[in-house]
Design goal:
Adenine-n6-DNA-methyltransferase TaqI, Chain A, domain 2; six-stranded mixed sheet; elongated; 30% helix; 422 residues
């Protein structure tokens, strides 16, 4: 990669040098803040995600209050002000509305909106943005427009902005294509793993025998929703793991259970997902702890419930999908003798380990590609790489295909709902 030969020192910690012909401009000279409040009944709700600004998922929470949203116009840059949503931002291609936690910035004339998209999603700017915020704990740390308005940004000439966008669109598409290949590989491996489990825990339609019985789930185990825990007390430094509706959420100083269990997520898009846990842990009210009887091995329970695809029984609520514990307990299941359960578990442990290792390797490759993409974007928009004379070939445009995430911290899986137990 070619570097600029003529650079200037800036005295800015996050941006020590820029090309000499670029300008430094304050955010409030480049953008105006849009504060107009609107109703989500009049303007379609948008989600602010790490993928950019997207139409809000149908099951995301909506408010009945009037004028509870901020207006967004196509071309506006929207950024989530909360540090726990770091990286959730982008230029909107749609008119709509976002929750009040977001900042909506309208670029002044002379700025390429796609350049703005790349510049403000640059991880170095993100760190500077949140450094200017305030708060007591990470989840409540926010950055207001008044605190970010004086941050200086590197602005190249208009023609160079256009070339930077063309270059980054090309390179990002190349990387996104490779990420897509790895994601498809993971999907295929996960499907093979799922089918292997289903085939192993099924009696293949055989009639009941001394080895296989059929009964309702509640005859072989009981289920208990966990205990609510506010997100503010969950961190990465606690002593005991905390499991919610979608798996591990963080750590806490106390625990609710000690032993070997299967956990079922009962709230969120992944309701019905199953996890194995061992030792001391805290189960939140969005996780269901499975207490096995003498007829059921806890590991076999994990494989059995995984094979039952419990997500198909989830129902939509006003906020997000949920799974009824009573519904699960009344499902019919087939299970073999305890001796045969242990034989199946040993075989599945070996097979699933192979799948899990292959999936882990594919995910690590995706992580490396994501990091490469982030570095390329950062180096180009901060003037470390000169792309003015790069010839852009014909290429297939590929959008970002990173994992979905929820908007603004709204509708996340740990909202307060009444638990179920049996």
């Amino acid at each position: 990669m070619v570097k600029y030969t003529d650079v200037a020192n800036t005295g800015i910690a996050w941006l020590p040098q820029i090309p000499a012909h670029w300008q430094l401009q304050k955010i409030d000279a480049l953008f105006t803040e849009r504060k107009t409040k609107v109703s989500d009944k009049d303007y379609a709700p948008l989600s602010v995600t790490k993928k950019g600004i997207l139409p809000q998922l149908e099951h995301a929470a909506k408010s009945n209050d009037s004028d509870n949203r901020k207006l967004v116009k196509a071309g506006d840059f929207v950024i989530n002000s909360r540090s726990d949503r770091k990286g959730s931002c982008g230029v909107s291609k749609l008119d709509g509305s976002v929750s009040l936690i977001n900042l909506v910035l309208t670029p002044r004339s002379g700025l390429n909106n796609d350049y703005v998209h790349y510049l403000l999603r640059n991880y170095k700017f993100s760190e500077e943005y949140y450094r200017n915020g305030r708060g007591i704990v990470a989840d409540l740390w926010t950055t207001r427009y008044s605190e970010m308005r004086t941050i200086l940004l590197p602005i190249p000439p208009s023609e160079e902005q256009d070339q930077i966008v063309r270059f980054l669109d090309w390179k990002v598409s190349e990387i996104n294509k490779l990420i897509g290949i790895r994601k498809k590989e993971i999907q295929e491996l996960e499907e093979l793993r799922r089918l292997t489990i289903i085939n192993s825990v099924s009696n293949n339609g055989e009639i009941e025998s001394s080895d296989w019985k059929t009964a309702k789930v509640k005859r072989i185990c009981r289920m208990q929703s966990g205990t609510n825990l506010v997100s503010q007390v969950i961190d990465n430094k606690g002593k005991y793991p905390v499991y919610g509706g979608n798996g591990l959420r963080g750590y806490y100083k106390e625990y609710t259970n000690n032993g070997q269990y299967a956990l079922i997520g009962r709230q969120g898009a992944l309701a019905g997902n199953v996890h194995l846990v061992d030792g001391k842990f805290w189960a939140t009210d969005h996780a269901v702890v499975v207490y096995c009887s003498d007829y059921l091995d806890y590991k076999y329970a994990y494989y059995m419930f995984t094979g039952m695809n419990l997500n198909q029984y989830a129902f939509d609520t006003a906020a997000q999908p949920g799974l009824s514990v009573t519904k699960v307990l009344n499902l019919k299941c087939s299970f073999p003798s305890l001796k045969k359960q242990l034989e199946i578990v040993r075989r599945l442990d070996e097979l699933c380990l192979r799948y899990d290792n292959a999936i882990r390797i594919a995910k690590s490759k995706i992580q490396l590609l994501q990091e490469l993409k982030s570095v390329i974007i950062s180096d180009v928009v901060t003037g470390k790489i000169d792309v003015r004379n790069v010839t852009i070939p014909e290429y297939e445009h590929v959008d970002d295909i990173s994992d979905d995430d929820n908007e603004d911290g709204e509708g996340t899986e740990e909202t307060e709902t009444d638990g179920e137990e049996a």
